[in-house]
């Protein structure tokens, strides 16, 4: 029998997979967002910074309503993506 936390993480993993099917590779999406935000802000934004900002957005929403499940799921997904991006950056020598 699994704990509620384990069940929640499995749900979050399922949502991450579904969003990958809907929107494509998350790392590519973050890179594309970084390009757009860089143009908008007039300074270079990295994909990692995009993920950190999106995490901050979700955490701010959770501060308003800690029970909002979608935001909690997104925090898990962005945290996993942050880990994925940092591992691929390390492999590339960045």
Q: Count of helices?
A: 4
Give the H and E element order: HHHH
Fraction in helix: over 70%
Largest sheet: none
Task: Report the C-alpha radius of gyration, rounded.
Answer: 15 Å
Task: Output the structural class.
Answer: mainly alpha
**Can you count the beta strands?**
0
The first-to-last residue Cα distance is 41 Å
In short:
The protein has helices at 4-23, 26-41, 47-64, 69-91. With 94 residues, the chain is mainly α. Helix 2 packs across helix 3 (47-64).
Could you walk me through the main structural features you see in this protein, from its secondary elements to its overall organization?
By secondary structure, the protein is mainly α. The longest helix has 23 residues, at 69-91. It contains 4 helices and no strands. α2 crosses α3 and α3 runs antiparallel to α4.
